[in-house]
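Kindly review this protein for my students:
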Amino acid sequence: MLFINQIINGVQVGSIYALVALGYTMVYGIVKLINFAHGDFIMVGAYVSLFSIPLLLSMGLPAWLCVVFAVVACSLLGVLTERVAYKPLRNSPRITALITAIAVSLLLENLFMLVFSSSPKPFPAVFDKNQFNWGGVQFSGVTVFTIVVSVITMLALQMFVKNTKMGKAMRAVSEDSGASILMGINSNTTISVTFAIGSGLAAIAAVMYCSAYPLADPYMGSMLGLKAFIAAVLGGIGIIPGAMLGGFVIGLVESMTKAYISSQLADAVVFSILIIVLLVKPTGILGKNVGEKV
């Protein structure tokens, strides 16, 4: 039963990685930018949720509604970051935007450390933590909820990109930004919506992550964001199903490594996947076989 339990744990963690990877892949698909500040949007979402829960409880509302506050705050932060830090650099070399993204990440981390200190803060229970036992296989309600939310989010995002006017605008800007402007598409609005959606997904991931690992600190998004980035690269960055596939694979590899090899080596194994992918198939598992990009 240990193997099956580790599969379930891996899928749960992978679901969180997938939610974060979707944000990476959307932004890269549109503006070809690796937004390394994306992991810190998770941290911001966690703190917004943490401080909104007492307010919700005092109003007699369920604690899980904190995800609404987190999504709104992170979406606004994503749009603000794009307008202030990235938009002026759209015609600059990519390395300039990449360095700016790292600077934004460090700014957010140090700002929150200055305001809230570096001490981890306990995150209250948001969802029912009842444990279930099915034929010797143990899992919690949070595990099932995390997996379901992740899959539904991916399907909804895929439908949004394929079937809505804004989704089609995203695909047009992704294919050829200049031509999309000539066709009457407002690329600035499209890019802002992309950042808002991607950052909102990071907020959902923050609540799911803190429900499973109930602590919040200014550096919590760093490692989580890096692993999600590896998941996006593994699946094929710029491809929505690829981000989900990569997230699940990374989660399963990490879970199995902790169970059967060593907990200390889990991070090393995950990062070695990035090296292997870049050497063997830089386009990721799905690569160019999938033509649709956000």
